[in-house]
Amino acid sequence: MSGIDRKLRKPRWSVLIAALPATVFAAIAMAFLWGLFNNEDSLPSTMIGRDIPEFDLPPIDGRENGLSAADLRGEVSLVNVWASWCVPCRVEMPLLVELAQTKSVPIHGINLKDKPAAARRFLAELGDPYHRIGADSSGRTSIDWGVYGVPETFVIDAGGRIAYKHVGPFDRQSLEDDILPVVRRLQQERGA
């Protein structure tokens, strides 16, 4: 091989190094696309099947009753973690109000890090589906529940255990296909 042929022929490793940035970019782009189009609303929760955390929250100003762990034992119920500053909470509120009107399951609220006046305005504007609301002004109770963000909705069995967790706002389909079947199953088990 002449010296000219050696100079014209590039080493193999330089081609691999040149392709590395494009490969890394493609892998990152695929990960972002998967995240963008993955519509799975349920995140795994270590709390499923466990007793609810012990807590005792005061009511939001203007409400008579707060919320405690003791209030969630004895019947199947929903606990919805919400805040007035949460835009997705506004999206699901009409369905919560509609569900409350059916009286098929008690709905309780944990109001996360909210100003009392803002929480009252939110409920006055959009409706108040809650039997009880506890004001979690520090956010500690929500952390104990394993809340990632608001809104989140939990199905609680009559024994005070978390049976299901829905992350994010629910729509009619997720309410009918995911949340209410768990509620009905637990209510039937309790009645049996």
From TrEMBL:
Subcellular location: Cell envelope
Chief location of this protein within or outside the cell: other
UniProt keyword list: Cytochrome c-type biogenesis, Disulfide bond, Membrane, Redox-active center, Transmembrane, Transmembrane helix
The organism's place on the tree of life at top rank: Bacteria
Pfam families, sorted: Redoxin
The keyword Transmembrane is assigned to this record: yes
Domain Thioredoxin: start-end pairs: 46-188
Membrane-spanning residues: 12-37
Gene3D superfamilies the UniProt entry points to: Glutaredoxin (3.40.30.10)
InterPro entries with a match to the protein in the record: Periplasmic_diS_OxRdtase_DsbE, Redoxin, Thioredoxin-like_sf, Thioredoxin_CS, Thioredoxin_domain, Thioredoxin_ResA/DsbE_sf
Keyword Membrane: yes
Record-linked PANTHER family: THIOL:DISULFIDE INTERCHANGE PROTEIN DSBE (PTHR42852)
Membership in a protein family: Belongs to the thioredoxin family. DsbE subfamily.
Protein name: DsbE family thiol:disulfide interchange protein
Organism, as annotated: Sulfitobacter faviae
